[in-house]
Amino acid sequence: MSDDERTESGRVRVLVVDDSALMRRLLTDLLRSSPEIEVVGSARDGREAIEQAARLRPDVITLDVEMPEVSGLDALPTLLAVHEAPVVMVSALTQEGAEVTLQALELGAVDYLPKPQKNTLGALRADRDLLVAKVLGAARSRVRIRRSRRPTLEPARPPRPTPTKAGSAVACVVIGISTGGPQALGQVLPALTPPMPPVLIVQHMLAEFTSVFAARLDRYTDPGLRVKIAEEGDPIRPETILIAPGGRHLGLVGTHPRVRVAISDSPEVSGHRPSIDVLFQAAARAYGSGLAGFLMTGMGRDGVDGCKAILAAKGSTYGQDEATSVVYGMNKTAFLEGAIQSQFALDDLPAILRDLAGNRSI
User: What is the spatial distance between Cα 105 and Cα 88, in angstroms, rounded to a whole number?
Assistant: First the structure.
């Protein structure tokens, strides 16, 4: 929904879904504290959520992950089929909660947040700010429904071969992505095959979810490629996809071909840690004209200055287009400010990356 449509329709209308009456009340109170939001209804489980969504036609739905009888994950496909409104998953900060939430994001939920904790006034205010921001951001997003569901059990895979040193058209690829990222990366990375230059990714994500996210991507990516969380001192090698650890900056030290990971706990940059700008600027220094940067779906402007740094170093920049972005935000800003050389549709990204790797025989 565009900003113009939002202005015409008034406040964002929200349906709250949670099996706990206390949590429904807490979420409702926090949302109603914003003059931009109206809570139009609530539901106790997935079945009731589907009925309420069809009747109330809300702008945004907050959906509990764990519920009896019909869980949030089980209800999500039908919920989106009945009323294609942006869904924000509400999850416990556990490994199991992270697994289920990431499945929901792959199926079409646009965002997620941890369950509010009614501990202190300060914590409650932080919960309120995050919840309101997530809901208002979701109201401006585009739902992208995944038509097929991946298995939740890890499939058998052959032993991972030793990484090769095949030549590539670019020395390194960096990707910055935020809202809509888990679904987009879950579509793109499994389509890649060796040879592939090193790929470094900043995905804005809670620290508690990042390791689970990387493990899920590695599970479904070609066995000739490795996906892992970046760690201090990791060498930057072909056939390796490194993801920034949650809550920490991913930087680089050295120059090509001797580049290594440098992890930092320094303050937020562009409102984020990890920050896309931090990675892109470090990669521009390390790789110069051998770098290709991709700025994808997400809110804000993180990555815009990083794209400018890549261009200044004679590298190349690409931005995901509006039609395939869940949120055409930071990629739009970069494009409008002249920091993006060309735009691409999400479905075309695997072929673009294969071409950059010089892998044109596929």
Answer: 9
